[in-house]
Each structure stands twice: as C-alpha cells, then as structure tokens.
Backbone:
C-alpha cells in the first residue's frame, strides 16, 4: 500500500497534478476515501469463515466480528488516526459509523459481501479504516482484535439489516458507534489496548508507536 501511494503521488506530480489520500477532502461531499480490507481465515486451504450461519458464515467468523465490534472504538485510533478521519466517520453519508454487522447495510462497520456463494469467497469487510492509517499497524491491530474475539467467543449480537434511517431514537441508541473525534478514539485506546499488546501478538506490541505506558499519557505522532 505504501508503494502504491508513492507511485500514484509521483505519477500525478509528473503531470502537474496533486493526489490526496485524505479521508474526507471536501466538506459535505458524499465522496470519501476509505480502505475496506476484506478479512478471511484459512487453515490448510480450508476457509474458516464459511458456514451455515447468518449470510453463510461460520461461528468463528461471528466471533471474529465480535472482536472487531468490541474493540472498534480503540481500533479507531490506529485505523482512522487523523482529525480528518472523523470528518468522514459521521452519520448520513453511508459512512460505517455503527459498530454492527450486516450483509447489506453500508452504515455497519462490518459488512459481509454476498456476491458469491463459494466458501472461499466468504469474508468480512471491515469498513472504518481510511488511507491515512499506517497499514502495517492497522492490519496487525485488526487481526489481534478479531483473534481476541475468536479466543474469547465474543458474541456480536444481532445483525443490523434494517435501514438505519428508519430506526427510532430508542432503537438507534442501542447500536454502539465509532468515536466521533480523534480525542475520543485515543481515550478509547487508553482504556482498551491489552488486546493488541499481548505477548502473542505480531509484531510483539502492535500499539507501541501510539501507546506509551510509562508516566502520564503521551501520544507519539
């Protein structure tokens, strides 16, 4: 991804153009820059996310989703690490602000693509990340959150297949959401970071560039 950015920016520069990977470069515009990584696990060539559950996925996939949802607010500091990231993560623009899963709702953080019935095509699309993140940190943190969900059998709850705009205030209040600012995301990471600093994680501490455990809170940019 870093090589891709480098090539695109330099190619554009040769033609007198400027390329931006800002998540929300134009205020109020529906256009946004995102990075929706498709996630799937395999073992000895066998897809582990395929099953006979909701949307054709397995119980393991649901637990993985449970980990992403539970740790979503903390992940935000890593996968959406700029102030501009939260210009994108706002309700009303089909942005993935709701910490829920669905096979069709684009406002859900976890979406399950339904374009193929093949077991090898079964995957989870985690939609909150944007191109401003460090992909090496982001992918590692997302993996650790998902694996924490599998290890602890985290229930993701019911899918959010309803139109989010049709939900009443009481029902909408029950749906957890992504942080509304970078400050809120950093606070969430401060409260919940053990999942990506375990000894079993790879790299050894995927939150090390952000999290400083010595002394008062200090953020490294």
Residues:
């Amino acid at each position: 991804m870093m090589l891709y950015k480098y090539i695109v920016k330099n190619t554009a520069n040769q033609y007198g153009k400027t390329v931006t990977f800002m998540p929300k470069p134009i205020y109020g515009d529906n256009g946004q820059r995102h990075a929706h990584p498709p996630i799937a696990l395999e073992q000895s060539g066998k897809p582990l996310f395929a099953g006979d559950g909701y949307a054709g996925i397995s119980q393991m996939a649901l637990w993985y989703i449970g980990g992403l949802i539970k740790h979503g607010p903390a992940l935000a500091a890593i996968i959406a690490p700029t102030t501009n990231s939260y210009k994108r993560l706002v309700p009303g623009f089909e942005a993935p602000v709701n910490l829920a899963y669905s096979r069709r709702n684009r406002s859900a953080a976890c979406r399950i693509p339904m374009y193929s019935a093949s077991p090898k095509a079964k995957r989870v699309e985690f939609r909150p990340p944007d191109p401003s993140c460090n992909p090496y940190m982001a992918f590692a943190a997302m993996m650790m959150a998902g694996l924490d969900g599998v290890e602890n059998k985290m229930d993701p709850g019911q899918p959010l297949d309803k139109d989010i705009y049709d939900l009443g205030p009481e029902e909408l209040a029950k749906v957890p959401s992504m942080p509304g600012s970078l400050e809120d995301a950093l606070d969430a990471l401060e409260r919940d970071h053990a999942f990506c600093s375990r000894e079993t994680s790879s790299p050894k501490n995927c939150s090390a560039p952000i999290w400083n455990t010595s002394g008062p809170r200090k953020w490294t940019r």
